[in-house]
Amino acid sequence: MRPNFLQFIRPLLFKRQRKKLVLFIFLVAAFIFRLTCWKAVEWLFQVPHILTADEIGLSKCPACFGVNTSLCQSILDGEITVKTNGFWTNEYTKGVMYGRWKNMEVVVKYLASTSEIAEFDRHICTSAGMNSKLSCDLKSNVWSSFLANETSVKKMLYDGMDCTFHRLLQKIIGTYSKSEKGLTGEEKLYLSTALHLNQEVILLQVFPKKDGWPFPTFYGACGRVIVVENVGKNLKSLDKKPWPVRAKIALNLIKLALKLGSGEVEDWVLYLGDPLAENFGVNEKGDVVLLDMEHILVADRRQMTKKMNGATCPDNCPSNKPECLQYSPSDLCNGICRDHNLYALCQGVLADMKGRQGLLHSAPGKKLRVKLNQLLQDCVSGENGRREDVMSKIAKNLENQIFVN
What we know:
By secondary structure, the chain is α+β, with helices and mostly antiparallel strands. It has helices spanning 5-46, 69-76, 90-94, 114-127, 138-141, 153-160, 166-176, 185-197, 200-206, 243-262, 329-333, 340-350, 366-381, 387-404, and strands at 48-50, 66-67, 80-83, 96-101, 104-109, 218-223, 225-229, 233-234, 268-271, 280-282, 288-290, 297-300.
């Protein structure tokens, strides 16, 4: 009997099909396994966590930002829970944790990196005559350290602030002091710790949201952390939003910059020192809030030696360094130039710079795109007219687009 051809070929076909089936099953299983592992890792770092006294540095007080008793109790009782961050996240690097306090979204901030805090603690110990490599009780040794050995509170503030006008010093001391007799020893140490680690905790209290400042609500300090309002997403996460949305945000950013620099609230002028997109937040209404105040410079318009003469702050940054922002604190304190916030906003957030896309990228239509790009570059350089006039033209173009859309 003649052999059937199919008898020979059928096993080969089935063998190939089996290989394909096994490969397919393996790929599906690998995908599910990878997805499951990723979700497990994500869950691990997103599970609500109750902070301990050690984690918030409560035992290191009074070498801390303060002790708000009710806030500390809420943290330790678990009323405030946070989502811990993976070591690869930007929030981990910046010492920021998002959490909940009853029905409120909050942010818990350390205000300094792990290495900065460790170096600060070593300095306390060594200045108190202790060997930093051995066990050092900060709570007791801080009283004989450099923090407590400042000759006076005013000198401490003069050394720690860029602009040191008498009215500003009195406002800070008045905010920190709970008694008419002046600062207690603990209050002085809280203030000194903030000056050495991060002045944000000072500014949040001295210039609170309730007085009209575009900052998050400050709920208090407990040990080495502070708790503030979670206002919403930061600008860096919104750079892919549709053009009309970004245009409206840009308009609100311009209003914020003008408000801070106007001196309209008790003649205080606040200048932006680190205008990165991630340092601004946007709430559900589209209002813009400054999230990071570490590098804010505070000036007193009543004490400025120069009159409002429209002098332009120079841009001395090289074109190949998009994150550069150069300015003279002395010039800003004395009012020699007043348009710094507009320069900072254009340079740091709005304009396309080499290697970085600005918030106003990809404007609709070639004509508008070319026009806006030129205006933004003029705002950065300050060479083609006053920045106030240039910014007014930018705002008008944005308003026209929002109205049309």
